[in-house]
Model the fold of this input.
Amino acid sequence: MKCFSLSILLAFIFCLAPFPGAQAQGLLDLFGGFKSDSETKYRTEYVEGDKEAVDEVQLIRIHGVISDDDDQDTNPFEFRKSMMAKFEKDLETALKRDQVKAVLLDIDSPGGEVTAADVIYHKLSKLKTAKKPIVAIFGMLGASGAYYVACAADKIFAHPTSILGSIGVIIQTANVEKLADLIGFKSISLKSDRTPKKDILSPFRQMTPEERQMVMSIIDSMYDRFVKIVSDSRKKTVEEITKLADGGLYNADQALANGLIDGIGYREDAFAKAQEIAGLKTAKLVRSKPKRNFAQILGEIAEMHSGAPALLSLLQGVLAGGSTPAMKYQLNVGR
Done:
């Protein structure tokens, strides 16, 4: 590994050497080593709108299953970061960058973990303290935990073809007790006599009525919290929201008629509403600009300098494909 790292470093120095001083300085600046923290930490890049405007509306995306995956930086050449890690970096930029006056929250998600959704909702509320309004817009899906997150916004929009709702809580397990008996499989769970409920969600035995009641009390408490969040956000009574919160799905027109969203449109419409709420005459939509990883930097060097492109392409391919494979259990919804 040390030899491989040394080879990468030598190759980088070799590629850097032919550059004039100004170009070499620019390459080194890609690492942020020659700029102050304030200049490099909260950078943004243009997406759309008035490119010359000083004021910014920051785009923050919540796409995919909402989860709080552990984001350990064990591989410096890893391209993918967890949803929560990306969100926290985007939120920090929105809070710390003075030019950002509002946030456009782009959501396309079937929901996910209860606690992860609640944490995102809680952290988004910090923008209200900073007096930076939020406008959310749903893509294809804005279901369950995704709708929970959107309730942190001042206004909620949906695309004409969005599917949203599914307000509710679910715990899923299975019971394969009869199947196990049929094939001669026996599960052995060792637990203390003082913890008879320790295997309460075991697929190899039925729940007792007492255990079922215990689990349902947890589900009901989480459901009540969800309904209260929606009720407060939509300025409706708990009773009104409870009628809508039966786990059912709504299209955009139905959601608008039931008061679950404020409008139907596209990103430019939500962007315009964010500017309006923030009191901006003009603004540009931006997204936070992440620090480049080494593989990406090598690609940029290849574009900037015609010397040794084959070596750079080879190194970039090695870095991009060198990650340790990971096995996951994950439901892919509409992907």
